[in-house]
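Intended use. Records like the one below are meant for learning the mapping from a protein sequence to its folded structure. Do not use them to infer anything beyond what is encoded.
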Amino acid sequence: MTRIGVIGIVLKRDRNSALAIQNLLSAYGDIIVGRMGVPDKESGISAISVIVKGTNEQISALTGKLGKLNDVYVKSAVTALEIE
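Structure written out for the chain above:
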């Protein structure tokens, strides 16, 4: 079943990881409803929120791949609401 979820991503300033995140988000673009990124220049980090609509497997796959990147911290939350 399709569900709505949120993926929170925090990235330490690293250009290579930022490009890898962009590539993954593009690859999973079919399940992404929207996203917003906010840089914190003082801390040298960026926070990105991604709203997704997909199966648990799709959302978990994206979250898992993001979590394997260097200097990337990720957490996801999936609602119990099932969409047909």
